From TrEMBL:
InterPro entries: Leu-rich_rpt, LRR-containing, LRR_dom_sf. This is Leucine-rich repeat-containing protein 74A-like. It holds the Pfam family LRR_6. It comes from Octopus sinensis. Coiled coil: none annotated. The lineage of its organism: Eukaryota, Metazoa, Spiralia, Lophotrochozoa, Mollusca.
């Protein structure tokens, strides 16, 4: 509580890594209800659980100026999401929520989709490192398709798989607000890329897309590249941590050379380009302002062991 008292006069209160319990959260909630100048509240990595989160959501229900709330790593689950949904019905100031690394599962996604759609004020939400699976794929697609307020969505480190990719593609075709989207570490695979090529191809809002480490090979990249070639808005794409070889690189270079492509940064840092591909990239960079992070090609004679 000493740290809380020290920070209580600040506009941004940082109380992360303090082991705050539900009982302590209750004690803190009483003075916070009457404070109107706090705009950011960081309670990351504590021991709130659903019980403690309830007290925090009650603060926001009564009305204040808090715009950003970080509840990551607090063992939050279904009951906490129910309380959050009730809070969002009343709150008009909160626009950023971090719920990463909790115990949120497919049941929670149903609550989140409805709550976020009805709210209309949340523009940034982090749902990474939770327990969402392919069973909530349709709901994820609906969240993206129907919500016209969220500009930043991080749902990385879950288990959405190819079904998730199919629903995400459906959502991207109709979404009108999303600018940053992270689906890294979701085991999308090549079949997922086949679905996503359509969504990427027609989406006209997304600026940054992270698909890193998704068990994608060159076959998947070749399909995804078809969508990239027709997208005129995407500026940053992360594909590192996948299994892309030379034929996949060729497909990417064709997409980058398309007059429609707006990519400015492509990260495939674990992928090697051969000398011919490096030459093609050089020609593309003469026409476009683009940076590609990749692994330079090294021949056997150029490689030196030790000194």
């Amino acid at each position: 509580m000493t740290t809380f008292i020290t920070n209580i006069h600040k506009t941004d209160i940082n109380l992360e890594h303090l082991g705050i319990t539900p009982k302590e959260a209750h004690a803190m909630s009483i003075p916070l209800r009457n404070i109107e100048y706090v705009e950011e509240l960081n309670l990351s990595d504590n021991r709130l659980s659903d019980e403690g989160a309830t007290f925090i959501f009650e603060i926001l229900t009564f009305g204040n100026r808090i715009k950003s709330l970080n509840l990551s790593s607090n063992n939050l689950g279904f009951q906490a999401m129910q309380k959050m949904a009730e809070m969002l019905e009343e709150n008009v100031n909160l626009n950023t929520i971090n719920l990463s690394n909790n115990l949120l599962d497919d049941r929670c996604m149903k609550i989140l989709v409805t709550a976020l759609q009805d709210s209309g004020y949340i523009i940034m939400i982090n749902l990474s490192h939770n327990h969402f699976t392919e069973n909530c794929a349709e709901l994820v697609g609906t969240l993206i398709e129907k919500n016209s307020f969220i500009t930043s969505l991080d749902i990385s480190w879950n288990m959405l798989g190819k079904k998730g990719a199919k629903s995400i593609s459906r959502g991207l075709q109709k979404n009108s607000s999303l600018e940053y989207f992270n689906i890294a570490f979701n085991n999308i695979g090549n079949e997922g890329c086949n679905h996503l090529k359509t969504g990427i191809g027609v989406n006209n809002t997304l600026k940054i897309f992270d698909m890193s480490t998704n068990n994608i090979t060159s076959d998947g990249i070749k399909m995804l590249a078809k969508g990239l070639a027709t997208n005129s808005q995407l500026e940053v794409l992360h594909l590192q941590g996948n299994f892309v070889h030379y034929e996949g690189v060729d497909a990417i270079l064709v997409a980058l050379n398309s007059p429609t492509s707006a990519l400015k940064l492509l990260n495939i840092q674990n992928v090697s380009f051969n000398k011919e591909q490096e030459a093609k990239l050089k020609k593309i960079k003469e026409k476009k302002d683009i940076e590609i992070i990749f692994h330079p090609w090294v021949s056997g004679k150029d490689f030196k062991f030790g000194k």
